[in-house]
Amino acid sequence: MSAAPVVVLAQTAQTAATTIPPIQTPHVEYSSISPMLIVLGLAFVGILVEAFAGPESRRRLQPLLAFLGFAAAFIAVVLLHARRATLVSGALAVDGPTLFLQGTILLFGLFAVLLVAERRLDSSGGAIVASAAVTPGSTGSTAMQTSKDVQTEAYPLLAFSVSGMLMFVSSNNLLVMFVALEILSLPLYLLAGLARRRRLLSQEAALKYFLLGAFSSAFFLYGLAMVYGYAGTVNLGGIADAAGTVGSNDTYLYLGVGLLAVGFFFKIGAAPFHSWTPDVYQGSPTPVTAFMAAATKVAAFGGLLRVFYVSFGALRWDWRPVVWGVAILTMAIGAVLALTQRDIKRMLAYSAIAHAGFLLVGLAAANTDGLSGSMFYLVTYGFTTIAAFAVVSLVRTSDGEASDLSQWQGLGKTSPWLAGIFAFLLLALAGIPLTSGFTGKFAVFQSAIEGDATPLVVIALVCSAIAAFFYVRVIVLMFFSDPPADGPVVVTRPTLTYATVGVGALVTLLLGVVPQPLLDLANHAAASGFVR
Amino acid sequence: MHTVPWLTILLIVPIAGALVVALLPKGTNTLAKQLTLVITLAELVLAVLATIAYEPDKPGFQFAQSHDWIKQFGVSYSVGADGISIVLILLAAILVPVVVLASWHEAEQGKRGVKAFFSLLLALQAGMVGVFAATDVFLFYVFFEAILIPMYFLIGSYGSPKEQTQRSYAAVKFLLYSLFGGLLMLAAVIGLYVVSVHQLGHGTFDFAALRQMEISEDTQKWLFLGFFIAFAIKAPLFPFHTWLPDAGAQSPTGGAVLLVGVLDKVGTFGLIRYCIPLFPDAADYFAPLVLALAVIGIFYGALLAIGQRDMKRLVSYTSLAHFGFIALGCFAFTSQAGTGAVLYMVNHGLSTGLLFLVVGFLVSRRGSRDVDAYGGMAKVTPLLAGVFLIAGLSSLALPGLNSFVSEFLVLVGTFTEYRALAIVATCGIVLAAIYVLHLYKRTMTGPVVHEENKLVADLSLREKLVVAPVVALIVALGVYPKPLIDIIRPTVTATFTDVGHHDPAPTVPVAGVTTTGGHS
Question: Which residues of chain A have a CB within 8 Å of the CB of B150?
């Protein structure tokens, strides 16, 4: 690209400055991308702390840093609330949906920090492994179970992942989006392998996630290449212009859309690209699972919405049937397979798959209401699911979390408050009125009916009914069965986890009873649409 | 009096009561019971006052209130009472204190403790008031689903103590059936909202506004089905009834009374309040189907009731037959049948409620629901047997007792429109006599076959206090049902007139017989 100016420069050095435009360095508005910069800076500072601080001070410093960093970035998002622009030569876009989703991701990041920082779960400490490199089963591994050490790299990894997510939802350019995808994914692959208990399961989860994630990234990249081949640009707006005209090489475009969609569907855990979800959710440390379930879904869905609304908006009659199909398959697989699960984390994983399907119903609506509805749903689902996983991390036996459903029997008798809150969260996931889950479903389904997707909504409601069965089954176990003799112990005084559970449950209730403020916010964010 | 927000007060009192009772400190079980009784009695007084303040001949909703709730979706907190809802609220207000007194000792054997039981009862009452009072379809749906949760826990945690598996099975079955119906209704509710966006320019859930819309017949059919299936599961009508015998049998006595007595009325109430006025063309179109299901239900329920050995299941099946009569009345589209159907809702609540109470007393004495465990009880417990007989006779619609009036109105009203159906349905009364008298014969008459039954005690003072008001009402409404009919009839007539159904002129004019009350 720069070859021609260089030749010209060499020939007429004198007139170069006046007649030939200089190489344009992009103008960077640092203030507008400050949330990303803050989190990225936080990640680098975190690495430096890892390098220079001692183990004890690391353990105290890292969570504090991460918390303050995420909070600062969240404040930056709030301050930017009215900003609508494309930045860095159109590589990034700051607009209503971007800021809404960035704020959401940062809030979930904050709660993830609280959960990761929890050290009072059992005698040895939190959910993160002491030393990830020790081979399970080797001599060091038993000592590691009781070691007070913690792999504090989790915090910078979390920050890197969040920075990738922030960038992912604001990418206005497929190439930047791919870079962001990698930045958000790679730390997650590592985080998945950091569970303190059941190391083999955790490492298996990390490897599976990595291999399948790499696959999906390749799909994404391939799709990107196809779309570039068609449109001659990777800019989302440019692709939209090219797709709007009648072209000769539609094959590239359709191939590209399909392959990109595979990448997105993998990240949000939609069928038939969902098979990693249960294994990874089960094996990962529970705080990381909570973070993945909430924040990754927001980021991936944000990117998906942007690409499909901005670039392929003109093609909606072509991709809508596909989204219909994927949504139906996802909801059905999530709801039906969740019925057969014996492990609480796997059950919640399949529930996450079903919810991805419900979210796709909002995408199938393909209207502004669908956009705001989906964003609202992401917030409601995220808070509820983080709180639910936080509760899972609290119910423990002597060797870690009591993840088998049979161990949850009679929890309503032994710890009525916690079981009550968990039942409430499950009812929210099932979509019972007066919980946020209901308002979210209502927002999405209403937009879908307006978008002429009534049959899809009916199917979604049938799937909700099936899904309700396995949520209710857990409630039955907790409340209507007697506790086993050697039942799980609920840990006392884990302040940070309690705080997360409390806030999550409170938000679930508030968004069910007075959802209007957040609905207004989502509407306002969606009304101005995506800038391009 | 008109400015008093009766319905909101009726809603807040039990909610506040439920919270207070739940948060009482440990070891205050007796206080919790007494407090609940006081709250429910206060609620009864308020409901009676509200009914007195209600003016039957004024059209539209009374005590209406409306505040924005979720503006985005056009949802408002809107409540209002018409002749149908006010009598059902009154019914709930009458039955809840009865149930509280009847369940005085029942909660102690439950899994969750006494305070939770009474708190759930109060929450249930709030939900029942809300579901009848709501004039916003969304609000109605919210209450419709919300009342499932306390009922679910009442069945699952306090139901028959010895059968844990069946109990949670019944609770889950009840919840899932209702949830499934509710979700279908949700699809229809959203559909209705979208229609309102297209027709009125702004989305709304306000019942009065929705009623003004002209919906195309095809759309009506789908929306009607969404609502109808939910209500048919709730009521329940044949063939959506299979959850009822399980839930009825496994519920604690008090829960069963409220479940069958009031909660199931939400279904029939929904039919006449929502299905018919909102989708008149579809209601016409589906009327033959509903009527057929109703008549099948009358016979199917009665036949299965005759064959039951489990007394609580038996009473549940009799309810299925009675709901057939109510649905028949709703869909005959005459004001007589409609009035009869609404009155039937009240009367069925009283008579089946009493039947469940007496059966519950009997079961609590002997610990068995099996008919064969009894026999000759009239000799040992004459008072209990007497009340049992009154409840049974009310259930079979003996003239002079409450149900007769409503059943008669339904059949007469149906006869003018659907002669054959009315004649067939009348035969159901014979079956009702069989299941009631057969049950009475097997349990109460004859010699005392089981030795242990000879020591069973008759009704205690508390139990007498429980049944006395219900028995009194059953007799009173049988002799003088006019006050209730005066409240119900104008609303029902307005509903049917509004959708274009006028009562057919009598084919044989009889001098001096007019159907309207004619007083203002």
Answer: none
